[in-house]
Amino acid sequence: MRDSYLGKRIRGGGYAFKGAWILIKSEHSIQVQVGIAVLITGVGFYFDISKFDWMFQFFAIGLVLSAEGLNSAVEGIADFVHPDFHTKIGYIKDVAAGAVLFAALTAVIIAGFIYLPYLFPNLFLQ
């Protein structure tokens, strides 16, 4: 079964979980984002948000964590390929960090749509 199609998929899933665990254990930015995700999930329970709000919230969390993970991978590859400072490596790292910024801003906007009406109900009367 080890070399079967299903065996390879199961093994690949194991590598994915291993990679996620490595990110959570070793990458400070991922740890911060996971902390924010736990906090905002608690806020979602507090305000009893709708299932659609949960869907958008978890999409935003996944988007940010994915972008952070890819950014960490790009930085690791760049540092491995060229450990000393190089302007092109700096450019690559900046672009990867910019992608994380886009994801984080998207998550903040989604959080605003979800939570501002709960925090300021008088401003969002319909």
Helix and strand layout, with pairings?
Elements: H1 5-26, H2 28-47, H3 51-81, H4 87-119
Describe this structure in words.
This protein is mostly helical and 126 residues long. It has one domain: Helix Hairpins. Helix content is 84%, strand content 0%. It is built from four helices and no strands. The chain has helices at residues 5-26, 28-47, 51-81, 87-119. It is flat and about 55 Å long. The termini are far apart. Keywords: ATP-binding, Cell membrane, Kinase, Lipid biosynthesis, Lipid metabolism, Magnesium, Membrane, Metal-binding, Nucleotide-binding, Phospholipid biosynthesis, Phospholipid metabolism, Transferase, Transmembrane, Transmembrane helix. One of its GO terms (molecular function) is metal ion binding. It comes from Gillisia limnaea (strain DSM 15749 / LMG 21470 / R-8282).
